Amino acid sequence: MDNRFWNKKTREQTPYVPGEQTAGACIKLNTNENPYPPSPRVRELISQFDTETLRLYPDPTSSLLKETIAGYYGIDKSQIFLGNGSDEVLALAFQAFFDQTTPIAYPDVTYSFYPVYSSNYSVPSTLILLSEDFTIPIEDFKAFPGSIVIANPNAPTGVFIELSAIKELLLSNRERLVIVDEAYIDFGGESAVGLINEFDNILVVQTVSKSRSLAGLRVGYAMGDLSLVKALECARDSFNSYTIDTLAQKIAVVAFEDGAWFENTRAAIMETRKWTADELAKIGFVTLPSKANFIFTTHPDFCASELYELLREKGILIRYFNKPRIDNFLRISIGTNEQMIQLISTLEKIVKGEQL
């Protein structure tokens, strides 16, 4: 491949690799997508959408969506920043707050986009080892002098840390920024949003992709002190002031408004998650406690990479990470009850040495 026009950073960059996407028939449990459709109100809105409005630029402030999110969380709309998915919001946060002179830390096992951002924006980063049980060692993070980025619940482990621990981080050094990535918070964890009025050094990042079944929409948001929001807006408007399109803004609003659908679907996922972990335990798997819409599990007698391949051959896609400390674990997204029953049935045959 001819890369003579690539600059030095592009040649050296190791980009994030998303989970496998496939158009074929399979049970897709590898990208943490919601197994249930969005609110029926989304379909209704799309069917009635006036396409004539698409000739106009979208509202650059996403005012109605901000008001909706602000009402949901009981905060002011000035404390909200919106972006094209939480990945863009996180990337803009790295651009707005960190550089060569501002070191940051994040866990050694966490969302693999963080090191990509660090490299892209030339931010010196320190990996802090998770404890043996994959919990976050708060004292080690408190001892770090720079800013901190934490996914809570963590990915790919699904392990959640209590708000009291996050508050310790905030109190231990009021001069450092703590970014809490809450992409999976709605599946059993308690959000840190309630801390943003007490602390000006926390930025909470969320998304509609997971719990509101809108991964294809690409809407993410951050919540924090006005000064943090203004910095994010400066970073965004330096390259694109229209990051959320008109239809996306409207869809996200109705998704927030349909609270009953949100509550019912997330409750179903949490119930299925518990059932899946219990069934895995019956056939010898050890699963970390999860507050996400996925589980992280291992079997002492079977190689995770082999299990991954065997399931893939049977049309069941899960996620395997060939990385230190987690190379014998599998991350399994929670699907419908029927999908998880088939997963367990297939794994049971593998463990018992039966013909697949």
What does this structure look like?
This protein has 356 residues and is α/β, with parallel strands linked by helices. It folds into two domains: 8-37 and 260-352, Alpha-Beta Complex (Aspartate Aminotransferase, domain 1), CATH 3.90.1150.10; 51-258, Type I PLP-dependent aspartate aminotransferase-like (Major domain) (Aspartate Aminotransferase, domain 2). The chain is 38% helix and 14% strand. The chain has helices at 8-12, 40-48, 63-73, 86-97, 113-120, 138-143, 163-172, 226-237, 246-257, 259-282, 304-313, 337-352; strands at 27-28, 80-83, 104-107, 125-128, 147-151, 178-181, 202-207, 220-224, 286-287, 294-298, 316-317, 319-320, 330-333. Helix 3 packs parallel to helix 9 (246-257), helix 4 packs across helix 8 and helix 10 (259-282) packs parallel to helix 12 (337-352).
